[in-house]
Amino acid sequence: MTDSSPATPSVSTADGVLTIAVSNPANGTALDDDAIAGATAALIELREGRRDEQVILLVGAGKNFCAGGNVAAFAGAEDRPAYLLELADQLHTMLGLINETSLPVVVAAKGWAAGAGMSLTLIGDVVVGGTSTKMRPAYSGIGLTPDGGMTWTLPRTVGAARARAIILTNRIVTAEQALEYGILSEIVDDERVDERAREIAVELAAGPSAALQATVGLLRQSPAASLSAQFDAEGASISRLSGEPTGIEGVDAFLAKRAPQWP
User: Fold this and answer.
1) What is the distance in angstroms between the CA of the first residue and the CA of the last residue of the chain?
2) Which tens digit of pLDDT belongs to each residue from 153-203?
3) Which CATH superfamily is domain 11-205 in?
4) CB 15 within 8 Å of CB 205
5) pLDDT tens digits along 39-55
6) Is the pTM of this model over 0.85?
7) Would you say 105 and 94 are in contact if contact means Cβ atoms under 8 Å apart?
8) What are the boundaries of the signal sequence (predicted)?
């Protein structure tokens, strides 16, 4: 069932896509804590088999994808260390659940993706930006260190030396640079970012979901695997899928020269 009631309107479902609006325009497009909580609840339902979305789409609810954490809320917290630890734990729980699903993740990175917003783009499998998209670590600007996995994902995306320079100097990364570095998958006109990201998400959701999820799983495990272990994992995966409905239909459709009807 995909009609489970999410904990927040920031989480919605349609066409096999679980859409999470990660930012709140009321707070200057800062990270939306309610959206994180709602997404976590929906992802737990996915893990438990109570939802059946095939793709996760991360979007921004305002003019930016996400301008980072709500710094005003940081400053107003009675116990800042405890408050920041709680926020980081909540974000990391959601990201861990996304990783567990092996679902493809599409990101609509319009406008600014700063701080936690930049971290969120780095978990995307397909990330669409606009001509005006800009990214910035932002953490050192407020005397803090990265969260959201940035110190793990950015070096693996852009290389260790470049990641160190970007994070330590708090460098602004333009859309063109983000595309060159492999953070963005493609750039479209600013007004088309959300539309294009959703097109990709819907296309993936209508595709061979078992094969796509298995592929995502292989890609996500590869950084920690040896080449030999990855050979074994790939062999086991392609063998398993060849005897399952998706693989059977794909091969039969290819031989029959017809479009596959994915189960």
Assistant:
1) 16
2) 999 999 999 999 999 999 999 999 999 999 999 999 999 999 999 999 999
3) 2-enoyl-CoA Hydratase; Chain A, domain 1 (3.90.226.10)
4) yes
5) 999 999 999 999 999 99
6) yes
7) no
8) none
